[in-house]
Amino acid sequence: MKELVIDKLSKTYANGVHALKGVSLTIKPGMFGLLGPNGAGKSTLMRTIATLQEADEGTINFNGIDVLKDKHEVRKILGFLPQEFDFYPKVTALNLLDHFAVLKGISNRGERKDTVETLLKKTNLWEHRRKKLGEYSGGMKQRFGIAQSLLGSPELLIVDEPTAGLDPKERNHFHNLLSELGENMIVILSTHIVDDVRNLCQEMAIIHKGQVVLVERPHDSVEKLQGKIWRVEIDKDDLAAFQDRYQVISHRLYGGHLLLHAYSEEHPGDGFVETEPTLEDVYFHTIPTSEIV
Ligand code: ADP
Fold this sequence. Notes:
Layout: E1 4-12, E2 18-27, E3 30-35, H1 42-49, E4 57-62, E5 65-66, H2 71-77, E6 78-81, H3 93-103, H4 109-122, H5 138-149, E7 156-160, H6 168-181, E8 186-191, H7 194-200, E9 203-208, E10 211-216, H8 218-224, E11 229-234, H9 239-245, E12 247-254, E13 257-263, E14 273-274, H10 279-286
Parallel strand pairs: 3-8, 3-9, 6-7, 7-8
Antiparallel strand pairs: 1-2, 1-4, 4-5, 9-10, 11-13, 11-14, 12-13
Helix pairs in contact: 3-4, 5-6
The site of adenosine-5'-diphosphate has 12 residues, from helix 1.
């Protein structure tokens, strides 16, 4: 089975920011979620795997390919969907995809025509193929982004923070497409949206301040919190007192009050009731809210 093995990867930017600190991960086929707050180092990691930037230390190996050295080999089997696919507004989807196919090395005209048609159909853009990218909605642009990332039948697909600006229907559509792709290859989805990982990924890693702080199946990590998450509704003014006394993992406004989630091995008393743990509880238990900027 093909695996992506990342070993002790480190990166410090010229400004001194230590963006990756010895990251090690083994990623198998399927959808892998890389979850972490803004600034955690996700993009740095994604861009390094995608051969778009260098690491200082460590190795990445994909099925015998030394990713950091054999960049050319990696690019043959890699698809990359950047955060925003918002360039070339004046070109039609059909022409742009054809152009990218040329760049990807598909030089045979007939083969290229077939590939472009297949991908535009797969991403439900065929009927919009003669529209310019500038006339596409956010969801259509994302789907076009997927279409271009699939040129050359990649074995490894990297998707960096994809769902910004999509309405629920487009997002759903996009997710279905990703999850279908995850059946046949490694798809790494980098995101700060916990729900996306819960809905889509079989495996996940939480990354924080350049380090991997948890690697687990989302389902298993939620199971482990069973019986340990408690909720209580409190007055906003009482937050500090509760934070002093309990291991509060998250709080949010709920009908003008604060809904608190706390972690405790035993019943904390004080009006708390047990609640079903969610992946969000896992996330905030792993990374305290106070550390998320
Ligand atoms: P994420 O994708 O999780 O938001 P990034 O990898 O973008 O995280 O950033 C990790 C850290 O590295 C942040 O502190 C960010 O400000 C810093 N950083 C990212 N890119 C650069 C860069 N080109 N030069 C300097 N610092 C950077």
